[in-house]
Amino acid sequence: MEPFSLEDALQQLDEIVRRLESGELSLEAAVALFEQGQALVQQCEKDLDAKELRIQQILENGAVAALD
User: How many domains does the chain divide into?
Assistant: First the structure.
């Protein structure tokens, strides 16, 4: 499994929104795409929460460390 990239996920979400807004999908395809988008949003939120926690730890400890 390749590492999660927030930038790639946001790009995928943009594409999902564009396809959903096109109105050219069947209902079933639109629902499946919506579910995929929801999974990406959850993954983005998890990634952002982890980065926020890491930043808080850095600030609290006064240490400089690389973000994952």
Answer: 1
